[in-house]
Write a structure and sequence with these properties.
Ubiquitin-like (UB roll), Rossmann fold, 2 domains, elongated
Amino acid sequence: MFKKILIIISILVVAVYLVIAMTHLNLHPEKQRCRKIEVVVKDTSDVDLITKSGVIQALKKHNLQLVGKRMSDIDTKVLENIARRYPMVSQVECYKTLGGKIRIEVVQRIPILHVMNDAGEDYYLDNMGHIIPAQTSVTYRPIVTGKVDKWFASNFLYKLGVYIYYNSFWRSAIQQINVLPGWDIELVPRIGNHVVYMGRIDNFDKKLDRLIMFYQRGLNKVGWNKYSNISLEFDNQIICTKHTNVMTNDSIK
């Protein structure tokens, strides 16, 4: 009986405390001051491009000393705009919580391709086609070389990168994408001793479907080092060049 009474008293005490605290907050919100900044970084399962300390440092560079400042004087929209300037940030949401906390939730960009072109440019492309400065090395991303400019990369090439990134086989299989003059595409796989000529980037998904079928039906039987070049340029056929320079045509319908 005494134990039950003690539990009831404890519950009543907590309830009274919460009522007083909420009443105080509602009556005097202008007096409440920021006591803590919470930063939550999302989409970091594959690679960490954003750190909590990095976001806070970005705010400090704008002379924003939030801790100790009146909550009513803090504009969360201003904080969001500043956080968006961080090159690795894709989305950001900032809001105030009970207890004098400012919570900043950021979604980082997802790098899918690493561009190192003939012009000496070095940057990453994310899954939305945005350019990310190559400030941090990201492993296991296809290297894009050759005659690729930022317009072609951001409008067309990134779509091929997205297809490769979200396909478990191609993500592990493709090592390099080379862009030829005229924006024709070559692929250099991690396995085998051959180069895949795609031609135009149009219908790259259908071309890669034909290629994986040829890998399964052809190279698994004859060996991965038999051909030096595999062409996907023409519909419904794959043209292969042997290392002995003998041409052989394989059609897959």
